[in-house]
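Issue 218. Parser rejects a valid record. Input:
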Amino acid sequence: SKLDETIQKAHDALEEMSLPKYVAVIKEFCISDLSQFYLEARKDVLYCGTEDERLNIGVCMSIIYNNLCALCYPIMPFAVTEFIRSKSPSIVLSIPKGISKPKEDWSKIRSFRHKVNSMLEQHGGNKLELSIVVPSEYVAPYFVYGVSQVLCSTNAIDEPYVVEMDGDKCVRCWRHLSVNVDKLCQRCENV
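Output the parser choked on:
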């Protein structure tokens, strides 16, 4: 996982006694992996997901929080100690050894996501009013790309392309899908 990779890089930087590299590793994780990828992809679930989906994100964020606190402790122990005391006094501050590896390798989809985001920026408008068609090896859940739908191409294509959505906008999640009389999509109606 990216968290595990970050922890390993941070350990390596500490062994090299390179404080700038240590800080850069933590900063890169917070900006690129946590903010620009994970939270961006999961914000739809935080706003519109079921209680179980939000709980799963809470568990992941708790693991990330605990590990980031432990990683930041060597460079700002007083601030981390105060922060932990105010939030959760049960956290044990030892530099983490890492967590288990994910079942899938997301690096290919993450790099393709940059290409999709550039294309969507050029297209303009609200991303939730669009769906994208991608090659089969880049199919991922809609929230990864931040659009209403991700469709798999039936033809051999190298580049993604945008398709305008026809459905009405769901009043809860703002995705353009088929909605009921209350203007809710099937997913939001079930929640």
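Fixed in the parser; the record now loads. The mean pLDDT is 81.
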